[in-house]
Amino acid sequence: MNEPVCPPSDQNSDCIVTIDDLFIVAEKWLDWNKLGPVATRYHTLISDTVKADTRKLDSFEDFQKALDSATATSAEANGPGQIGSLKSFADQRRAYLLGLETVKSATIPPGK
Predict the structure, then answer these.
(1) Of 20, 28, 19, 31, which is closest to residue 90 (Cα–Cα)?
(2) pTM, 2 dp
(3) DSSP structural state of residue 112
(4) Contact at 8 Å (CB) between 50 and 44?
(5) Triad 108, 42, 99: Cα angle to 5°
(6) Residue ranges per domain, the chain?
(7) SS3 at position 4
(8) pLDDT tens-digit profile of 43-96?
(9) What three-state secondary structure class fits 18?
């Protein structure tokens, strides 16, 4: 069941992403309890630089909200090209991946 998952253009390459790998990403790394602290550290690290940027496309307030705020602009509410929060994206992507039948049957191999 742990066959490589590759885009059609990569079928002849040495693709090494498997269903088990997708399960690990969804189960472990898209969990906000694990991803959130990492994202918060990087968000804090670049915050002063973003605030000082005079050419940014969005306001600093939008940057502050975009990490995990429920008030961040929702892509579903405002159409394509709109950005929701990183937390919202991670939660939705995790739910989607864990809902796929092929991913449901995956396991975390020992040592991963």
Answers:
(1) 31
(2) 0.70
(3) -
(4) no
(5) 35
(6) 17-104
(7) strand
(8) 999 999 999 999 998 899 989 988 987 655 544 555 555 567 899 999 999 999
(9) strand
